[in-house]
Every structure is written in structure tokens, then in C-alpha cells.
Amino acid sequence: MKKRIVCLTLALMMTATQVVSVSASREDELREEQAATSAQLDATYAQIDQLYSAKQQLQDEINSLDANLVNVMVSIQTLEGDISNKEADIQQTQADLQKAQNAKDKQYAAMKQRIQYLYEKGGNEAWFQMMMSADNLSDLLTKAEYTQKMYDYDRQSLEKYANTITQVTNLGNQYQQEKAELEGMKQEYEAQSVDLQNQIDTKKANSADCDNEIAYAQEMANEYANLIQEQQAEIEQLEAERIAAEEEARRQAEAEAAAAAAAAAEEEAAQQEQEDQTVYDEDGNEVDASEAAENGDTVYDEDGNEVDPSQTTTETTTEDSGSSDVEYDEYGNVIDSDNTVDPDTVDTSSSSSSSSSSSSSGSGSSIVDYATQFVGNPYVWGGTSLTGGADCSGFTQSVYAQFGYSLPRTSYEQQNWGTEVSYADAQPGDLICYGGHVAIYMGNGQIVHASNSRDGIKISNNAAYRTILSVRRPS
């Protein structure tokens, strides 16, 4: 009887479970949809982070390009000042050349006049006439010595002015060459400024595209967030309805189970009462109702009324009781208590390695010897290859790197590297820094540097050919 009650209760609970299964199924679908929407939202936020990073990188590049553009413009202004000074030097050498030429012409004219005078006064016999006109030997020697001094003075003067003209001419040519080199550098800086401005414009356009993509991604993220909220609200509503339905079904199941148990109890009580009824034979003797029913005997109750012995006996069935390993939940589902899994323990380990580097330094003469190996190689703006092409700061950076020195990349940064010394104290291996340009001092007023695209890496004999802003010594 107890088993029948348990089965009835489980059946009622399973019916209650079926009632809420439809709601739970829709709730599960919504949770799956919400998980997918959340994944899309996370992906969108990740995309926004990437776009912000890309935009920040573009802004950093724009700032760097702006700084380079300012440096190039400053270099152009410095070169314009150097060119103006060089033009003044050229004009001065032209004036000096004209003065020397005028002095030479004047001296040459005076010499010609004296020679003409001597020739007109005696020609080839001038020396004879000078001897004849002399009052005495002392007067003759005096006149001869004076004439010889005049010849020596004229010759020395002409040689002096000729040398002056040669020196001034050479200096003028040097200034012209240096001016041409400065003008070439100015043209390259002007080309660099145009290229930098084009790069800035392109990166600004790319940054604007990032802004548009960020705005669109943010709009999509807002839509995903709103959808998640809507899904969550519907899930909470379904969950509340499911819980209420489960509670109602459980209440009904418990009520029905209680009613069934009460009915079963009444039936059992009536049956027990019937089993406890005593029957008698016709002589009034108490008999076994079961045996009387089997023999077909007539029996009577205690009041003498005839009764049917089959209705006063109950077949007794013995139900073996025992224990079962099967357990059920409140909905009648089988619970397997042995269905457990011990989690595995995963040991993780990591190792790290370290590396070390060493650097060596060299003397200034070693730096110069190494740098001059690359004279004749090309100049390439932005390059750092000693053989394939380098600009001025890329050349110095790569040379010094061979001796363990880490120079900044640009000429403007290299102006603050190392220890500053005066040009008068400059030694081989020092950096000579100009406006937007840098070179390696060789000694004796010479420098080796990546000059321009026309001359490439070269040696210049005049380190002060333009304004020197700083001299830096490795430290």
C-alpha cells in the first residue's frame, strides 16, 4: 500500500514537471541567445579597444611626424642663415680678389713704366750710360744697387699679388662649393617637409576613419546591450512564472497525494476491520473463515446471521521489504549518487631564460678609421645602412653602434648625447652638430659625414663650413 502511495506521488510530480517544461525550454533558448549576444557584445568591445589603440598609435605617429616637420623647418631656416653667411663670404672674397688684382695691375704698370724709362734713356746701353754718368765708383755702385733693388721689389710684389690672387680665387671656389652643398641640403629638407606633410595628412585621414568605425561599433554595442537587457527581463519573467508553476504543481501534487493517502488509509482500515470479523458454525463454535470458504461450509456472525465466508477473509500477501539503491528526486527522476567525477589536478610550471649582451668601446681614432671605410656609399634619407645608404644621423648612429655606443636616431636628439665640449677642444671621434645635420670629427678641421644625395658619404676639409651648434664627446 505504501508503494502505491509513493508511485502515485511520483506520478503527480512528473505531471507537474511536464507542466513547466515548456516554460523551461523557452527560458533555456533565451539563455543561449543571451550568451550569443553577450559574446557579440564582448567582440564589439574588443574591436572598439583595438580601434582606440590604432587611433592612439596614429596620433603618436602624427605627433612624431609633426615634431620631425618642425625640426626640418628649423633646419631649413638654419640653412638659409648659413647660405646667407656664405654669400657674404663669397662677396667678401670677390672684393678681396678685386683689390689684389688692382694692386697687381698697379705694380705691373709702375714696373713697365720704369722699364720703359730705362729703355728710352739708353736701351741696351743703359748700364753703360749709368756707369759713365757716375761721379765715382761709390756713386756707380749706389746706382747699380738701387736699380737691382727696384727689380727685386717689382718681382716680389708681382709674386705676392699673384699668390694673393690664387689664394683668394681658391677660397672663392671653396665658398661656392660649400654654398652649393648647403643649397642642396636645403632642397632635400624642403622635399622632406613635403613628404612629412603628406604622411601627416594620410594618417589624419586614417584617424578620421577610426573615429567613424568606433562610432559605428559603439552603436552596435549599445544595441547588443539593450538586447541583453530585454532578454534578461524575459528570462526573469519566465523564471518567475516557472517557479510559480512549479510551486503550484507541487502544492497540487502534495494535496492529491495526501487525499490518495487518506483514501488508502480508509480502505485499509475497512479491510482490517473485515479481516478481524469472527465467524461461527451452526453449533455456535468459532471456525476459521478461510477453511469454511474452502469447504463451502455455512457460517454465521456473532448475531446468528448467515454470512458468506469468502467476504470475511482476505488473501494476505507478504511483501518483502528491502532496501534499494535507486533514489528519486522530487519530480520522480532517478538519482545516480555514484555519478561523480573527481577533478583532475593539473600541475603547471614555467621557465624563464635570461640573456645578456656586452658592448665594447673604441678610441676616437678607431671610430674615425671605421667610419672612413664607407666614404663613397650613398646617402638615403631615413636610412641606417652603412653600405646600402644612410642619412647623416643614421650614419653616425650605425658607426658608433659598432663601438658599443647607443645614439638616439635623429640629429636633433644627438645634439644632447654624450658630453659637450668646445670646437677648439674637439678630438677625433667627436660629433659635430649643425642645424639638422651631424658629422664625425676626424681632426685637423676635417669631418666625415653622410652629406647629401649627390655626394653621399664623404670627407669635408672644413668642419666649420656652416654654423656649429654643439660638439659632443662619447661618454
Automatic annotation (TrEMBL):
Q: What keywords are assigned to this protein? A: Coiled coil, Hydrolase, Protease, Signal, Thiol protease
Q: What GO molecular-function term can you cite, just one?
A: cysteine-type peptidase activity
Q: EC number(s)?
A: 3.4.-.-
Q: Which residues form the signal peptide?
A: 1-21
Full protein name: Hydrolase
Tell me one Pfam family matched here: CC_PcsB
- List, for all copies, the residue spans of the domain called NlpC/P60: 361-475
EC class (word): hydrolase
- Its family? Belongs to the peptidase C40 family.
Q: Where is the composition biased (Acidic residues)?
A: 265-291
- Sequence ranges of Low complexity compositional bias: 255-264, 349-365
- The gene from which this protein is expressed is spr
| Coiled coil, from the record | 41-110
Q: Per the UniProt entry, what is one GO biological process? A: proteolysis
Which segments carry the region annotation Disordered? 246-365
